[in-house]
Write a structure and sequence with these properties.
Blueprint (H helix, E strand, L loop, with lengths): L6 H8 L9 H21 L5 H7 L11 H28 L5 H25 L8 H12 L6 H24 L18 H24 L6 H11 L4 H26 L5 H18 L4 H4 L2
């Protein structure tokens, strides 16, 4: 039976940076997957589509260090999932102005909860890594909560084009040396029972629904952040690991708000924001497996 880390060891983990695992290669690949389409938006003057691009670029985060064939298949699956999420979010954003504000807010929460449960089942059944539903929920709810700037089908096409780029970069990553002998592939779908998938759906759906309701009732300007925070912990195995990840997330989020406030305290042009976004994405991927709180800065 595995030993549970002591509270002191968990606190020490906040201050410890794990050894590097050729992190610069996937970090660079993921950052490039964001930089290229964002540069296209700047050149074409369509920076309002940045949200669709950003969430499509999350595809590159999946299947880190995995063999080429497994990464190709799983990034295609992850990218398809994210494209659907962006499309759903854009459809809700188009529908929301025609509804009373309270009803549209609850619609975003309910859709986010459904996506949380459904994407958790999808991720688990296909052995995708990172596990959980944080990226699908974030993509759906954020797009749904933002003003609609394009028809839902255009939003989906933009996300899909970025997904294709990230999958291509994923193929090139292995040749650049992105591999690690300690990588553990996720379980294949045939190893997961229906009961496990049902429990997974229920956990994520209830957590996202309750958290979103609390966020909405508390008057948060963006209640979906409560949903994102709730589902982020569920992917960790065991109660202790979830608490540890929650503490990391709390510390990282607070420090991240400070960093963001500092960066936005100066007058900036759109291209400068893009540069900061790409740079911070690179740094986040450099540390995400080494110290979670630092990666959230």
């Amino acid at each position: 039976m595995p030993r549970t880390a002591s509270p002191l060891a968990r606190v020490r983990g906040l201050l410890t940076i794990a050894p590097a695992r050729v992190d610069h290669i996937p970090a660079f690949r993921i950052a490039v997957g964001l930089a290229i389409p964002m540069a296209v938006l700047l050149v074409t003057g369509r920076i309002e589509f940045a949200m669709y691009v950003g969430f499509g670029a999350f595809t590159g985060i999946y299947s880190r260090y995995e063999p080429t064939r497994a990464r190709f298949r799983r990034q295609l699956l992850a990218g398809s999932m994210l494209t659907v999420c962006v499309t759903i979010g854009a459809a809700v954003a188009q529908l929301a102005p025609r509804m009373p504000e309270a009803l549209s807010s609850w619609l975003v929460i309910l859709v986010g909860a459904m996506v949380a449960g459904g994407s958790a089942v999808f991720v688990t059944s296909h052995g995708l890594k990172p596990g959980g539903a944080i990226f699908p929920v974030f993509a759906t709810a954020a797009v749904a909560s933002a003003p609609s700037v394009a028809p839902f089908w255009i939003a989906g096409l933009i996300a899909a084009s970025v997904v294709a780029l990230c999958v291509l970069l994923g193929l090139l990553g292995h040749w650049a040396g992105e591999r690690h002998p300690d990588v553990v592939l996720g379980r294949d779908h045939e190893d997961v029972t229906r009961a496990e998938l049902g429990a997974e759906f229920a956990r994520y759906f209830v957590a996202a629904l309750v958290a979103g309701g609390i966020g909405l009732a508390s008057g948060l300007p963006f209640p979906y952040w409560a949903q994102v925070a709730a589902v982020a912990q569920l992917a960790s195995p065991g109660h202790g690991a979830r608490i540890e990840k929650g503490v990391h997330r709390l510390v990282g989020t607070v420090l991240g708000v400070v960093v963001t406030a500092f960066l936005l305290s100066f007058p900036v042009e759109p291209w400068q924001l893009v540069v900061w976004a790409v740079l911070l994405q690179f740094l986040a991927e450099m540390f995400i497996l080494r110290n979670y709180s630092i990666a959230l800065l």
